[in-house]
Amino acid sequence: MDKPTKMEYSQPHRIPKFQPRIIIHGGAGNITPANLPPDLYNQYRASLLTIVSKTHTYMLTPLPSSSLPSSLSVSTYAVTLLENNPLFNAGHGAVFTRDGTNELEASVMVSRGHSKRGVGVTGLKHVRNPILLAKSLLEHGDSDLLSSSKQNDIPSAQGHTLLYGKSAEILAEKYGLELVDPSYFFTQKRWDEHIRALEREKSGVEITATWSKDEYLPQGTVGAVALDEEGVVCAATSTGGLTNKLSGRIGDTPSVGAGFWAEEWEETDVSSHPLGVSGGPGVILSGALKKLMADCLPTPFMYTPECRRVIKTRALAVSGTGNGDSFLRTAAARTIGAVARWGGYHGRIAARKVAGPDGELQKSAGDRWGKTGEGQGGVIGIEAVVTRDVETGEVVGARSDLIQEFNCGGLFRAWVDEKGVAYARVWPDEKRLLKEYPGETMPEQPRDWDGGKLMMR
């Protein structure tokens, strides 16, 4: 797992400038070496590395204002690239409904900085990049909430958080987003999966045409979570939904709290309510706090006794992928946030309790686990924490951590660590040493992938 990152700060009473972070996912489910042969694995790995590396370069390129791009811009930039790549279940490459059509969904949510904080769009058939519509709706949120009048002839979305179909696409056109003929989303691979699954269901080989015990049928989404230098985290998610879903079905991706979540909060008495109460370290300390606490701590790296009262500002964002109906039933993303916020757990532990093996997602499937695809899935995320002295307001520590938890065969994911090294992986740690898949342990330099290598189709 990624290690906590030390942040730089120049003024003790201000939030430090964070090192920007990025992690992406490309779906989760019954992904095994048997249904992901090395040649196909290499295509996924090349695409993930290219996308995360391009995003990393974009993330660290200053804007004309000299500031770096926001987490909203970074995460939606990454998801746009994923939507444009036919390997993944979003945009060009989205799965088909039982009726042979494509119905797309997307969402974004930020921990702070926008009045609506989170929005979702669903039932889209013509918007080339659904994630850009979600982004536009979030950005227009302030004016939407302040006035019901038209803004530059653009109708207001009012205070609405979730928009469907034609209404959403009218706004997309008014915002100047690219609309396409539905044929744009067609790929032969997805069509073949659609037909094979229906035939297996009809013959009785499988219970449902949305999942197979032998074939990886995309039932997940693509997504990205980013942290910017101001400490804002953003989750961006996009999908074609479940393979062979009913037309009109709405999944977890556009539903706030189910497939995505982001929030920020303060903990005012962490000395009596430490992080990681279930065996993990209470507080991970920065160099400044380590020095300050050296005389009163049993070790220089963690503490639980009261020695100096501190207040924490915590921000957490997660993006989910997998069986969306299970995410809806468990309010999975919001539950992760609640476990972290109200239970006092580290974000990673909270994610594991929900999306890890034997977690709430898996439990929600009951005796159907492993038979219908229910409960399968995973999440990626980022947690950022700033620690201040209660009395003086002095910043005494800051960190950020990446989150990646899943309970199924595999999760397509890629990230750049705190040292600027890129990784792309599919399987859990215990499968990383498979000789056929050396890429699972291979670090990469983003500069080698951000334009020098083509995404393999």
Structure description:
By secondary structure, the protein is α+β, with helices and mostly antiparallel strands. Helix content is 26%, strand content 21%. The strands form 2 sheets. An 8-stranded mixed beta sheet has the order 4-3-2-6-5-1-11-12. A hairpin with a 5-residue loop joins strand 11 and strand 12. Helix 1 packs antiparallel against helix 2 and helix 9 crosses helix 10. The longest helix has 22 residues. The radius of gyration is 22 Å and the shape is globular.
N-to-C SSE string, H for helix and E for strand? EHHEEHHEHHEEEHEHHHHEEEE
Query: Rg from C-alpha positions?
Result: 22 Å
Sheet with the most strands, sense and barrel status? 8 strands, mixed
| DSSP summary: helix tally | 11
Residue windows where pLDDT falls under 50 for at least 5 positions: 3-13, 272-306, 452-457
Overall pLDDT score: 86
From the N-terminal CA to the C-terminal CA, the straight-line distance is 29 Å
What percentage of amino acids are in beta strands? 15-25%
Helix content: 25-40%
Silhouette: globular
Q: Tell me the strand order in the biggest sheet.
A: 4-3-2-6-5-1-11-12
Q: What is the β-strand count?
A: 12
Q: Which structural class is indicated by helix and strand composition? A: alpha+beta
Structural descriptors:
single chain, 457 residues, alpha+beta, 8-stranded mixed beta sheet, 4-stranded antiparallel beta sheet, 26% helix, 21% strand, disordered N terminus, disordered C terminus
Quick rundown:
The active site is at residue 221. The protein has helices at residues 38-59, 71-84, 130-139, 141-146, 165-174, 188-203, 287-292, 324-330, 332-343, 347-355, 360-364, and strands at 21-29, 104-110, 118-124, 162-164, 222-227, 233-239, 260-267, 310-322, 377-389, 395-406, 410-416, 422-425.
